[in-house]
Amino acid sequence: MSIRDFRLGLTSKALILLCGVLLITLVGLIGFNHDNLKSFFMLGRTQVIENQQYQLQRYYRDVRNRLQGVTQSQAYRFEELEAEQLDAIFDAYWQDLRSNSELPIRSISVIDGQQGLKYEFGYIAHSEKAVEWMLTGADSPENKWLLDCPLTCRLIMATDLQLAEGNEHYRVFYSLDSLRLLELFPASQSSHHFLVELNSDQSVSLLYAESAFKTAIQAIVKQLVAEDIENGVEQMSGQLGLFELHAFRVNNTSHSRPVYYAVVNDISTQVSQLKRADYNNFLFGIAALFFAGAIVVFALSPPFRRVRRTIDNLPLLARSSHNLFRRNLKPNKRRLVQDESDELNHALVRLSYQLEALEQQLKSRAEELEWVANYDSLTDLPNRRKFERMVNQMVEHKRHGCLLMVDLDNFKYVNDISGHGAGDEMLRQVSSSLEKLLPSNTLLARISGDEFAIYLEGTSLIYAEVVAQRIISMLAQVSVPGHNIIHTAAACVGIVAFPEHGNSFEDLMAKADICNNQAKEQGKNCVVSFQAENADSELAKQHYWLDLAQNAIERDSLELVYQPIMNNSQSKVEHYEVLLRVRDEQGQLHSPYQLILAAEKNGQIDKIDLWVVQQALQQMETNLRNGYRDRLAINLSARSFCSEKVISRIAREFVSRNIAGEMIIFEITETAALPNMKQAEEHILRLKSLGCAIALDDFGVGYSSFHSLKQLPFDFLKIDGSFVREILNQNQDRVFIQALVGIANKLGHKTIAEFVESEALNNELISLGVDYSQGYYIGKPASARYFWQFDKASAVLALQGT
């Protein structure tokens, strides 16, 4: 089992943590107590040693005081005697000392202050240094004794004998056996004394020791070095047991090397007591540790068991077993004192109620989301996602049939003219009509804004065409009231068959879209079935235009041409419309209609419009440098006109090129202005603030041209060519243009007629009051060099003659 898999319960963790803390505390307390006991022990030993040193010094002082007293007590013997008798008196005094004194006196020496050494009695073995000290060095009050060890160690103590009447002063020196003197010292049985000398090689020599322990002390001295004597030894083991050694230097000595008085104290009892105290502390700490652990276990086990029970039951929440979870967490009995484990249980019970409510909401919401993800909220029909899944199932199970794509005609105008409410109502009526017309088991879906898709299982292409015709007939009966108009539904239907025309949903939809486009090109209310022989060319054509729309500028496939527009009152060309052309691989120019459709579909129309504006303004710069001041009219698509970014970019182009706005006319269609009148007015005013003029293109073909004319500040109205071509033959068109010109004149607008292709037509338009004419009669579209590098009049005549 790896470390990651190792599991440790909360109780165990708490116990381990507590035991760790207690163990650290225990070790600290034991160490603290041990240090205290050791400090007390060392303090006691220091006091014992200091007391022993003090007692020894006091002992020597008492011995000397006794000898001084004894010496002074003999003064009466000398007061009535002659000097010649002193020898006999001192001899008698010596004999008396040997008989009656318990002190181990080995000799006495009498020094006359004037005559020097006068008498000596007893065993005389003084070193020269001792004799010199007795003669000269014993006068100091602090130097009243001397340790002398010529053969055996003796302690020489100095006393004074003062005769009152004779005014004579003698110094009496007593030589005492150090060993016997120390034996008389009232020391403890656990202490032993000896005298050592430090040698030059740092070894230690024993000078004397108690006879009863001399062998043991000699063994100790053999283990010692000078450093041990100088610093002391806290603990040593030997024949005397466990002991400590301390030594005091003897300064009053006749030896040339250092002499130390050493004391060995038995510390076995104290060390044993110290160990026993440490052992007792350890036992007490262990007992306290186990006792604390037992208390913790007793106190924490119940709440930890409750926590464990809570953890074991938490998976019930994941399984949505909320009632069982709450029942398992319910306590068997109410406790007087509650803790965090109870609060945790209460919180989890509340959480389980909240989760239960949330799960109900989520379940309901999931059902709603599932419905939203698969159905259209407006028509309640399946959406493209669900339709694709259902068709894929049909394809997977080889359930042949036909797919119909129904695309409403001019649906955008319903929204533009009467608002989205009318458009939504039309969609609802269309979906309801389709549901009534089709069998209940038919797959019917709304796959985009104005497109519906139908899958007829087990039907042939011929039967599908019949159904499509019935759909067109039925939709013609759908009508929706709008703003002062009744909108009638119309549609085009594209049909493909499975598996004849494709083996996947994408393939079938792509070919149905081709059919739909072909139907729209044929006009309203058309049905087109897929023709395999045209499939490749149609798909290739779609791909070609989409690719070209994406890369036309980079490939240098676009070119501008210019068509003159003549001022009828002056019979003079005053401005030119900028027209876009597409150059094919052979270098031929073509209409941009398919390119613009593809660009609008893949979102490239803004880029193309900006390119046209930049190229036109560049041509204007060239014209102005050459002295040409003809105005240029530039078309803007609906998407570009509605884009704030495009309008701002156009404004920056004017500033960067330093071109006056009055040289440019922007042409927009009614469909560009209708979706958002307020925005359209803002953008028109912004362009007019640059000095530009605005023309409404294709005037008359929209549903609300006069409404736009009323709301927006246009400068020119371009009459759609459908009203111009037949005015010589159709009186209605003539009346319409006459009325339109009258309204424009009243509103202060200039009118431009398109598709003027003959002199008679142009003269008729002039008679009706049309201000400007544009068409092949005035001039065909041509490149810039035909108008601004040669004489304009000859160029226009040349174009008219072609």
From TrEMBL:
SUPFAM superfamilies: EAL domain-like (SSF141868), Nucleotide cyclase (SSF55073). Residues 399-532 form the GGDEF domain. Keywords: Coiled coil, Membrane, Transmembrane, Transmembrane helix. InterPro entries: Cyclic-di-GMP_PDE-like, EAL_dom, EAL_sf, GGDEF_dom, Nucleotide_cyclase, Rev_trsase/Diguanyl_cyclase. The chain crosses the membrane at residues 14-32, 282-300. SMART domains: EAL, GGDEF. Residues 341-368 form a coiled coil. It holds the Pfam family EAL. Residues 542-795 form the EAL domain. PANTHER family: CYCLIC DI-GMP PHOSPHODIESTERASE PDEB, CYCLIC DI-GMP PHOSPHODIESTERASE PDEF. This is GGDEF-domain containing protein. The lineage of its organism: Bacteria, Pseudomonadati, Pseudomonadota, Gammaproteobacteria, Alteromonadales.
